[in-house]
Specification:
binds manganese (II) ion, 275 residues, 6 helices, single chain, 7-stranded mixed beta barrel
C-alpha cells in the first residue's frame, strides 16, 4: 500500500503539468496576453480568384444565394446557400491537388494535428516592392536560418511579400498584362529545396496561389504546387496581417473544411501571439 503511493503521486504531477499548459493558454487568451490575429481574407463575390487560359476549366468566384431573410420564405430566419471554388480566398491546398500526388490525401484526410504549428515569417517586402516578379531562392531562406536559427519541425513557413495589399481586387491581385500574371513566389530550385529539406507542415503566402505569377512558364511549371504536394506539405494562400507576427514565436492554426474528396478548401487561419 505504502509503496504504491509515490507512483500515484508521480502520475498526478504529470497530469497537473499537462493541464497547466492548456490552462495557461486559456488564461492568456482570456486576459489578452495571448493575442489571436486573424490571417484570413474575408470571403465575398469580390474575393480574387485565379484565371486560367480560356480553353481550361475555370474556378468559380464566391457567391451567396439568399434562401430567406425574415420574409415569406422563412419569417424568423436569415440564411444563404453559397457556391465557390475550393481554391478561393484564404484556402488550404491538399496534397491530391496536384498531379505529382494524385493518390495523396484529400482535404478531409489531412490530419488536424498537422494543421497547427509554430510559424516562421520571412519578409521579402522590400524586394517585391522593387520587382513584382521577385523569386525567392534557397539562399534567401538559408540566410534567414543563419540569422534566426533553425526552422523547427512541424513549423509553418510563412512568406511575407506585401501582396496582401494587392488582394483587394481581382485585377491588382493577378497583376496581369500581355505576358500573364506578375506576382512573387519561389523559384523552381527553391521550391524543390524547401519541399525536400525543411521539416515544415507547409507554406503560407499572401498571393492568390502558392506559385509565382509567371510560374506557368517555368522549366517545371508551378513548382510550389508540384513539389509541396509531392512531399505531403500543405499550402495556404491569401494570408493577411503577416506584418503583425514576429519572425518566430507565433503559433498558426489553419483549419479547412473537411470536404470529402476535396482538393482544398477555404480555411480560417489564425495566429496566436504572446504579447
Ligand atoms: Mn489552391
Amino acid at each position: 500500500m505504502y509503496r504504491k503511493l509515490p507512483r500515484i503521486e508521480a502520475r498526478a504531477v504529470i497530469f497537473r503539468s499537462n493541464m497547466s499548459t492548456l490552462t495557461e493558454l486559456a488564461e492568456g487568451l482570456f486576459s489578452g496576453s495571448i493575442e489571436v490575429i486573424d490571417l484570413t481574407s474575408k470571403l465575398s463575390s469580390d474575393t480574387p480568384i485565379l484565371a486560367l487560359p480560356p480553353e481550361m476549366g475555370q474556378t468559380a468566384a464566391f457567391e451567396l444565394e439568399e434562401i430567406s431573410k425574415y420574409d415569406d420564405r422563412g419569417p424568423d430566419w436569415y440564411w444563404n446557400n453559397f457556391r465557390t471554388g475550393e481554391h478561393t480566398g484564404t484556402h488550404f491546398d491538399a496534397p491530391c491537388h496536384w498531379a505529382s500526388n494524385k493518390d495523396g490525401l484529400d482535404i478531409s484526410e489531412v490530419p488536424v494535428q498537422k494543421m497547427i504549428g509554430p510559424a516562421v515569417v520571412l519578409d521579402f517586402c522590400a524586394q517585391v516592392a522593387e520587382d513584382h516578379d521577385f523569386l525567392i531562392e534557397a539562399d534567401h531562406i538559408k540566410a534567414w536560418i543563419e540569422e534566426n536559427g533553425e526552422i523547427e519541425p512541424g513549423s509553418w513557413l510563412l512568406i511575407r511579400t506585401g501582396w496582401d495589399a494587392m488582394t483587394d481586387t481581382q485585377e491588382r491581385a493577378l497583376n496581369a498584362n500581355e505576358t500573364g500574371p506578375h506576382s512573387p513566389g519561389l523559384s523552381t530550385d527553391c521550391a524543390t529545396w524547401v519541399a525536400e529539406n525543411l521539416p515544415i507542415l507547409g507554406m503560407g503566402v499572401e498571393t492568390v496561389g502558392t506559385d509565382a505569377g509567371q510560374a506557368f512558364a517555368f522549366d517545371r511549371p508551378f513548382p510550389c504546387h508540384y513539389e509541396m504536394s509531392a512531399a505531403n506539405k500543405w499550402g495556404i494562400t491569401q494570408l493577411q496581417n503577416l506584418d503583425k507576427l514576429p519572425a518566430r514565436g507565433a503559433v498558426v492554426v489553419a483549419l479547412p473544411l473537411p470536404i470529402v474528396k476535396g482538393s482544398g478548401s477555404p480555411a480560417r487561419v489564425v495566429a496566436l501571439v504572446q504579447r
